[in-house]
Amino acid sequence: MHLLDILSLRPVPASAVFLSLTRRCPLSCRHCSTSSTLRSEEHSELPFLRLVSSFTSGLHPRLVLMSGGEALLRPHLVERIAARARESGTGSYLLSGMFFARQARIPAPVRKAIEAVDHFAASMDAFHEEEVPRRAVLAVLRALQAEDRDISVQLTGLSDDDPYLAEAVGDIRDALGDQVPILVGLVGPVGRAAKWADGRRRILTHRPMASVPAPCTMAAWPVVTFDGTVVACCNQDVVDRGGGVPAHLRLGHADRDGWPEIRRRSVTRPLLRAVRAVGPRAVATLSGLHQAGDYCETCRSLADDPRAAATADRPVFTLLEREARNRQLAEGPAGFARRFGSARYGELVGLGR
């Protein structure tokens, strides 16, 4: 499964689901969007397993994407989820901060987890490199590449003209023979970076990807948060609220709601459809509402006023959502990467295809 295959699904509602397996992480990167530590929250594995067990051959997402924190702190859970997903026809993706690359050998449980998934992505940036040397990460990726595994790099910088990005991109391409795709994003004011990052910057977090355009592609893939709450988008403020999210963004809980119900709510809920079609600011304007702050804050406020719900019930949004999705599909994965990550490096998602 190439990175292009994954990104091509991004505009399609409920074509994939994110699983936030743990907030814990052994690294302490200064830009961490989840503010993770080794003492961060970690809940039962049962909600994640129950949701994936509700997939059937006739009704399942195309892809599950596992992240954290550091998902490979729970390697056996990663392995079980990937195996169960495959039984129903669902592919699996895993993103890691590569803490284990500091060791001479990949620990056996970690290796088994990596071997279990259909695509493995390594997160790399100047902040990770303060704790995990780039050469160590590239050595692991070269070994996986030699085994013919589908891999990619999720590279993050401060801006399109960040010298670090130019240097790292060149190093990665040289080390991996220009055959491994690179998804480049920019640090935004989320988690630990909220104290210092430029609030105007687009954001690529540990989930591909978070940003602030309209219409909202981020409301396409549900997210199972750390405690099993299922929310409609990957905005970190929404994920961190768990059960306290606004009603239109709460899709249920993996402990009691299976995939058929989660999918139905994601695809058919009028406010989500309208947000995917034209974005929350347009919905607010059409409803005669005051825009409550930025793009995402406006979205979170829509559930507070019945006028927004009345606007979203208009049949036209079904057509507008379809048109918005088709436009994004026509742009392709590189277009998506340019809009939501780095415009300069968007084409790198196609390396190795």
TrEMBL record:
Superkingdom field: Bacteria
Segments forming domain Radical SAM core: 11-215
Cited CDD domains: Radical_SAM
Molecular functions per Gene Ontology: catalytic activity; iron-sulfur cluster binding; metal ion binding
UniProt keyword annotations, A-Z: Iron, Iron-sulfur, Metal-binding, S-adenosyl-L-methionine
Protein name: Radical SAM core domain-containing protein
Lineage: Bacteria, Bacillati, Actinomycetota, Actinomycetes, Streptosporangiales
